[in-house]
Amino acid sequence: RTLDGPPAFREGEGGGGGGRVGRRWRRWQRAMTTIEFDSEMRRTLAPHLEQLRRELHTRWPNLDPEMLLLHWLCMKHNLETPQVKLRREHGDAVGVQDFSPMPMPPSSARLHSSGAKAKRGLGVLAPLSPASARGVSGGLGTGGFDGTQSPAFPSPPPTRPGLGATARSLDVGGEFAEVTFLPQLLGAALTVKPEKEPPFQLQVATPPRGPRPTPGLRTLGRLNGQVEVDAHRYLCRVDQMAMARTNITDMIATMRQELRGSFLNQVPLLSRNVINDQDFLRLVGKLRPWTFEQGETIIVEGEIGDKLFIIERGTCEVIKTINGRPHCVGQLSKGAFFGEIAPLYDIPRTATVQTTSACTALSLARSDLLATINDAELEKMRVIARTQVFSSIPLLNDLDSDEKVRIAQALKKQKWRQNAIITGENHITSRLYIVEHGTILMEAKSKDLLPSFWPIDQEPKIVLGPGGFFGMRGLLYGAPVGFNITALTEVDTLSISYEEILATSPPEDREKMQSTMVMSMRHYLLRQIPQLKQMAEEYFRTIAAQAEQVTFKKWSVIFAKGERLDSVYVLEKGMVSEHPGERMAMCELPGETEENANADATPPRVTPGEFFGVECLTNKAATASCTLVALTDVTMLRLPPAAVWSVLQEERQHIARIPLLSHEVLGKAEQYMLVGKLKPWSFRAGQTIIRQGDIGDMLYVIEKGVCDASKMFDGKEVAVSQLKKGAFFGELAVMYDMPRNATVTAATDVEVVSLSREDIFSVVSPEKIVKMRHIACTQVFQQSSALLQNLETHEKIMIAEQMQSCTAKKGEIIQREGEAESRFHMIEKGEVTLMRNGKEIGKRYAGFMVGEMTAMFGEPARCTCVASTEEVKTLTISMESIYGTAGTGERPALERKLLSNFRRELISKMPQMQGKSDEYISAVCSYIEPSKFAKGEVLFESGRKLECAYIVECGEVSVQGGPADFGAEDRQRAEPRRLYGDECLVMGADGELVEARASYSLVAASDCSVLRLPKEVAQLILK
């Protein structure tokens, strides 16, 4: 080799021995790219090549020095020499020439010499010795030669075509001569033969060291050399591919990191505006990917975590528990984040996040955050996190982000020992407190001391964790806390006074800031009115704009008992009392009646947000049930009912369209109360509101936007209707735990309001709940009952009123296989399992019918029905009770209706009727022929031409002579097989019915009634 590596790695310079130097050289080679290697070689060899070029130019000015060096190196290492000219032609360094094998010159020509001329031609000639001759094979210019050859050296044999040495041309001394190289001698044999009587003839040869190699060995040497070259090229190519793979991997990793960095930058707490670039990149590197399958839960509502999550791929839905049931309140997709407060504070998760597709999420744990971020940046992040907590504090919610940041920076931290009393119930706080770490207990002595807006069924105690706050009303209005507050654990709180809040704003902006906080608190106080609590923001702001602030002096009567209520009053500041007596009764002098008066009086009301006179919102003629007196100077918000009526009236009209909540069931007062329970929801276009098959407990009314309703048919989703403003859906869910019968998706951005089962049951009386159930039954009949769906509404209501409620515990049998049944059941609550011959064949849920078809003719039950949940409620009725609902002389008409409905159901279940309209099925029903067969009679025989299809209406038939597996499928169905001989209804390619013959005999196993569908009629109808 001419180069063993970079200078520092050459032998003798790198140190540590040849093996270590070789390893270092190989590592150096692998570390360099092709371009870098070429550059290094040029830098290293350039001085040597330049020196070689100067020396050779002096001696052989017409030869190309680099080609000559290449030629010599190929001979030295026994490699195939390139077929190029070494002589310069018109300034060209190299030219390609056709070379053919040439015969060796005669011996006399090789022995003839002229030293002087040779020296003049080559300029490097010297007397040749055996050692120097051998040196020619070792390197050009290492020894001189004078053109003589020892007689001891044998002459080379003549060259044969294909096996001889390759010829090269040299321009020596200005004359064209032939130079022959003999690679097979493992050295170089140089012969100069002039074409035209040259002044000299010269041959230089390397004497052989032993026996002359044969042509086969020469070829093997070349193969070995070529193998080494190819192996070197292969290793270089492998290194290049490995480096390319590494570069691609690095590029992908860099792109992934940049994408993750963009996701992380969207989190306000961790954006580049909060932390420096170096720490930001470290946090990006600590993001940990998680893979979740569809339906997996990432976080659970109420749990305390320490990780935030960012969705990198897939979609999720946000689920909140409302009235004890989970409801989807939003959807998340790529780039969305949740749980961002968890790395800083132990705040319970506010919702459950569940995947709706295969999902990859990135997480950042609190430990990684604390190990990366310095204290200054961590405090800055806490400030940002506190501003997010402010969104749950009504007083500060509407301030802009800069104002929130300044307030967060002004908060003062305070520590409390475990069991320390933070404040008493009568203490007037002048500071707003926010729990940063730990938990506290807020507890009132009695429910009588709680404000009027406190939920009736809630205990008078609250446990607050991180993010909870207290003292807001005292901060603005100087009201007492109303609770004894104790630290359950070691607690860190953040607090601020009203003056400190205003001091965070520039003097010119303080008035605006103060006005914003006062207005926010007024809206919060008005929201305590039940009818306004859940009202949509658009409607609420319209009402709130009409509220006015009024003041009353001490001992002023705000309204008296028996007077007509013309306004709703909300306490803002001061103390009032509700006196149960008349106005004049309050003027009695202290005496014997004072004790009784005090006993009847209610505790003073001092909590801002307490409301009075709300009866006028639901009843225009409402009167006061007590006298309201100001015990101190009082400031109140007065709201005229007309402002509320104008909004509630539209909402009331929407829910009045729902049959369950119509004027026939509820009065206006109850409807207005339900309007106050409406909860607003917003859905983006494409979001699913309810899904077919899911079980829910809410009905929805569309207030804005358009929705699409769709159902699944044969595995495909088919749109069935479009719902617009005022439309409602899901109304049966407020009565029964039955699966949704359709999917409703927002076609545009949609705003809806919802009512839950609990909302309705808390407002409507039990007597009217029963009436609502009857109406709900009629809707279930329409969807699920084959016998009752086409009856008139009043007929359905009368049947619903006759249905009896039954309850079964888990494992109890509701209907037994083989027993004659004249009753059928509607599942109202729970789930049942259908069994046949001890094997499960299906399940039924709320809203489904069981045993309806067999009850029509009092046939034996085809399966056993078993309760499979802890409690199953059913509504049951006999056919005789149904007939009994008909008036005098109306029973035959009702019987005909039910029988017609029964036959329609049988026809509609034929495979040929699938997807047909009601009018189509009605046309087919008009051609059926009822027939009766006694036990043992043959309906048709095997091999007989089928002229009609047979549908068993009642009774039993048996198949004789059919295939062994005939009816195997029917044994797995809840209903028995009723259709036979329908092969005759098959249409041919020409549009005509195919002639069919029976492959079995059909015999009546008992007295039975059969519906015959003639083939000719089938051809006319089905065609």
Write the layout of secondary structure elements.
Elements: H1 18-31, H2 34-59, H3 65-76, H4 107-111, H5 115-122, H6 130-138, E1 167-172, E2 175-180, E3 190-194, E4 202-204, H7 215-265, H8 277-285, E5 288-292, E6 297-299, E7 307-313, E8 316-322, E9 325-332, E10 337-338, E11 352-355, E12 359-365, H9 366-372, H10 375-389, H11 394-397, H12 401-410, E13 412-416, E14 421-423, E15 431-437, E16 440-443, E17 461-464, E18 469-470, H13 472-477, E19 484-487, E20 491-497, H14 498-503, H15 510-526, H16 530-533, H17 537-544, E21 548-552, E22 557-559, E23 568-573, E24 576-579, H18 592-600, E25 611-612, E26 627-630, E27 634-639, H19 641-656, H20 668-677, E28 679-683, E29 688-690, E30 698-704, E31 707-713, E32 716-723, E33 728-729, E34 743-746, E35 750-756, H21 757-763, H22 766-784, H23 793-802, E36 804-809, E37 813-815, E38 823-829, E39 831-836, E40 839-845, E41 849-850, H24 852-855, E42 864-867, E43 871-878, H25 879-884, H26 891-908, H27 918-925, E44 929-933, E45 938-940, E46 948-954, E47 957-960, E48 979-980, E49 1001-1004, E50 1008-1014, H28 1015-1022
Helix pairs in contact: 7-8, 10-12, 19-20, 22-23, 26-27
Spell out the key features of this protein.
disordered N terminus; single chain; 32% helix; flat; four-stranded antiparallel β-sheet; 1023 residues
In brief:
This protein has 1023 residues and is of the alpha+beta class. It is built from 28 helices and 50 strands.
